Amino acid sequence: MDTDDDGDRSLTLAARFRTEVETLRWEAAGRVRIAHRRVQLWAYIDVALGFPAALLAGVSGAAGLATENARVPAAVLALLAAGFASGAGFLRSSVRIAANKRARHAWAAMESEARILLTRQAQDGEFDSDAAEAALRSLFACRQAALAAYEADGAEI
């Protein structure tokens, strides 16, 4: 009777392990997509603010040097260029892009590790609770690393 109880307990632990790993894999897959979309968004914002700033700065310089009557419009264009440039600097889109790229890679690594664990469990006939615990600890360490990847060199985003 003890062997049946141990067998049932092992099946229960194996099912719980599989459920936990699938949950972590699902979370990682979702976070990969989110990080990828954020990289695209911040790259778009970087271009949307940086290009007009550079264009307006060049036009205002040329207009200011062209004629004396164009100095006021050139000053307005220079102020607009400065506003775009300061907005781009304030948002720090390049820092956010790098942080989301790091996070995307970390979440993808976690997802891959979870897939490997699920494959190994499906192939193995027996469930080793010690190995499963070590594998879960490794996955949770990957999760912590992925969460920490959003921090850009210690700077808060």
Describe this structure in words.
87% of the residues lie in helices and 0% in strands. It is mainly alpha-helical and 157 residues long. It has one domain. Helix 1 runs antiparallel to helix 3. The chain is rod-shaped, with a radius of gyration of 26 Å. The termini are far apart. This is SLATT domain-containing protein. Keywords: Membrane, Transmembrane, Transmembrane helix.
Structure, briefly:
The protein has 157 residues and is mostly helical. It is 87% helix and 0% strand.
List strands and helices in order, with pairings.
Elements lengths: L1 H65 L4 H21 L1 H31 L5 H20 L9
Helix pairs in contact: 1-2, 1-3, 1-4, 3-4
Organism: Streptomyces bathyalis
Protein name: SLATT domain-containing protein
Keywords: Membrane, Transmembrane, Transmembrane helix
Q: Please write the string of helix (H) and strand (E) elements.
A: HHHH
- Give the CA-CA distance, first to last residue: 58 Å
Global morphology: rod-shaped
Beta-strand fraction estimate: under 5%
* Low-pLDDT segments, ≥5 res: none
Mean pLDDT, as a whole number? Answer: 83
Look at the helices and sheets and give the structural class: mainly alpha
**Mind describing the biggest β-sheet?**
none
**Whole-number total of structural domains:** 1
Helix count equals 4
Return Rg in Å: 26 Å
Oligomer: single chain
How many β-strands, per DSSP? 0
How much helix is in the residues? over 70%
Keywords: Membrane, Transmembrane, Transmembrane helix
Organism: Streptomyces bathyalis
Transmembrane segments: 41-66, 72-91
Protein name: SLATT domain-containing protein
